Amino acid sequence: MDKFKTLEPVKLYTSAAAATSKRFSQPLSAKGGPAPFSFIGRLPVDVHILILTHLSVPDIPAYSLVSRALAKLSRDERVWEARWKAFGVDKLKLSSVLDDLEARSKVQNVIRKEQAPPTLKVDDDDFGDFTSVNAPAEEMGDFVSNFAGATIMSPSNSTWTPPQSSFRAQYIRAHNLLKPFAKALSSPPHAILTALFPAPAPSLMQQALTLRLLALFFCHRVKPLRTWQTLGSSLRAAMDLFGEGLLTAFDTSDSKGDEKAMAEAAEASWAVWDPSDGPWELGRVWSDKHEIFYDHQSKWDPLENFTKDETLVFDAMDAFMTNILSILKEHGGRAVHVFPPESNVLLSFAERLATEVVGEYVTSLLTRAREISNETFLKATAASFKETWRMVDVIVQVSSERSEALVPRTRAEDVVYRMFEQNMDEYLDEEVDYLKQCFEMICRGWDRTVRFSLACITTTTDSGCSDVAAGYSAYYYT
């Protein structure tokens, strides 16, 4: 035995902890964490992940204190990926809002440091003259001189790529940027917006996107704080006040004809709007204030399309549709310029115009035509459909003023089809009955012609034309 050989400790027995860890060793998933089918305690890993996903963020540390395995699992990417996707930042494309908030926080930190009281700088050199030494590399020993001929690659020449940010890191960044707003949400309801956006306040669009992001943050899917419900209610009240302010600003700009200010208010209102709250209020209010929806019955009478002898003359409906198309061009064009293209305000306005104004006019006209005769009803239906079809060309023409708001022709045609849908069943039934009657009359005429021809053949053998006339009379009266 070599007397200089190092002695190594020998384990006389296996410890209980090592045996337990070996017995309950867990397979790894593709992402590095424990596999879903493995167990932590009595529960599978996927159940623990589900619990961590639905816990509020402040409760995750308490859950991770149960064991080291749960502490490790609480940092697993699967937990934070589910929470980040539930947040909805990527889905709604709000990452730029976080970038702006981060830039603003950096600027505020710089301003805060500049406003801090001055401090004395102490130039204390703990390392003496070694920090300022400028000796050649050879005089510093082999540690430095060995690298004298080495080539140092710059980052631009290397193949190094920055690591992708994990879901946990992305959430931590968003959490740190949005959590300070909780203090502002604790203010009185009338002062929340002022506390959220102190002077100098950002643009209306930036305020709307920030409120939308905060609404996603303080919700049941994320639960960033234990008081998220209270903060969410305060935020909802502030968003309602913000929406009312935008509506007032939009109406004021509309009365002045300032389309630029109208577009700014409309885009901010659309950005802060949550589809789960119902129809978009600003677009609905803008449509409601047009007089055509309330005074059309007193100005236009559908019965003027009938003469005294109950024949159809569509000069009255032609004038009515000309007025409707002029309104659609004027207000529809403003809707295209002012409202966001994805809001489809032009189509909504056209559908309401077709249903509530043109549809009522056509229904009264067809009801009167139905009372006169089936033939008059069919002619009135075809003529009124032709008149209302003019709306399709106007919708496409108006929407083409803004390339991103262009309405496909098929969607414009659907506006007229939906308006006529309630009359189409009755029209088709009457048309089938009318065609049956016409076919029966045609068939009877053919039958009479054939019978007359047969009668002529049998009676013209010896009698001449007088027999032909007699045969025709016999045929006609039979």
Automatic annotation (TrEMBL):
User: What's the protein here called?
Assistant: Uncharacterized protein
